[in-house]
Amino acid sequence: MWRHFELADVGIPVKRDGVHLVLTTRYRDVCEKMLCQAKIGVRPLSNEAAWALFVETLGSDLPPRRKLIAEDIAKECKGLPLAIVVMAGSMRGEFEDHVWEATLENLKRPGVLEQCMKESVFPILVHSYNRLDKNKQLCFLTCALYPEDWLIPRRELIELFIDEGAIHEDRRRKMYNEGHRLLDELEKACLLEAWTRIKRIPDGVICKLKKLQYLEADNIAVKGEEVGKLRKLELLRCRFENVNELNEYTLLVITIESYSLVITARSVTRAYRARIDDDYFNFFNRDKVIIMGEGEYKIGETCHLLRDVKALLIRGYGGGWNISSFMGLEELEVLWIKGCDEVSALGGSGGQPGEPEGQLEERTSSSPPEDHCPNLKIHECPKLKRIEMLDDASPPLSLKKIVLTVEVDGNREKRWWESLEWVHPEAKTTLEPYVFVDSVDGNIPLQECRS
């Protein structure tokens, strides 16, 4: 159906008991104006469904070698039912392997599938396009400037529409409103597809994948208990929505070769994900990474980390820690503290001074027998005034460096370092050789920076 109409005008008694009407259309607004009770969007077929349709249309059995080629041909049809039917129909009566191989190779070339579908599929798309007004046609053609399956930001498209003269309004806000309306119309006509971000894998799905070895779901939340029960898993990249999910995973998991976990309630944007990939992971260069997002938690108490974590980033945290909270993490190589506006102290096990105002966590009484202090990287923690790491005049044996990140030069960082409060009288002098400023020129010793 291309437009709506009153069913009573054509004599369809939809209100009579037992009468059900099913209609198909390329326009969502037709469904809405026809008062459809259920709207079912048609999505591309899965590989399994596409193969079943291919076999049904072909109507004959295939030997093992030809079957493998046929499966690849079905996949090249991209889940489009009409394309699958056209291709399967064209292969009826072909019994030579070289014919099937040649067909597959041809399909992999740009434009071949479109040519094969031209007689059956293209007229439908042309009809949809021809029904658009000139402005919508111009907007649709603008999208053809991008590669196939490209994710195009709406704002970027609207700017192009304005540049191409498809939108004429006297104010920017009106232009954007008109741009969004045009894109909505193209979506309703099924000529553009809106990108929907998957935020969470539904509960009960992962636990069924008992043989799963690799799970790469960077920005997708998963249930910690279900992932922790996967005994074949070797690589994991995912997001836990809260500390409880991390705790459940930590409690159940045995060992895993590589993981990258982000703990945050909010779905990570593509821009933020890119910053993590470009900055954090390049710096860590480790195969076992945990990124703790904003929140209130106590390491070792309400938050239990994997004991083999090698790199730990804590950002946006509102509390304070005792350094000994991390001592049990014997594999930890890097601790990066970023954007923790309220953290006022990183406590150690030496001395028992009064707690400064604003520190949220009580000091633990003593550190484990084998202290392991990671590299420290500190950035954007304006209230941090105390770093306590010394029981005596010697630094922890495992300490390699403390890195302060800076945007321009190290002067501000050196002044901040000199303003810190020290419990042990020799702490500042003893630790300063381990302190570096991370600038565009690399790690510069703090002692080389001007005051």
Automatic annotation (TrEMBL):
InterPro entries linked = Apaf_helical, Disease_R_plants, NB-ARC, P-loop_NTPase, WH-like_DNA-bd_sf
Pfam families per UniProt:
NB-ARC
* GO BP: any one term: defense response to other organism
- The record places domain NB-ARC at 2-56
Q: Where is this region: Disordered?
A: 347-375
Basic and acidic residues compositional bias, start-end: 360-375
- Report the domain of life of the source organism: Eukaryota
Key words of the record: Repeat
Provide a Gene Ontology MF annotation, just one.
Answer: ADP binding
What name has this protein been given in UniProt? NB-ARC domain-containing protein
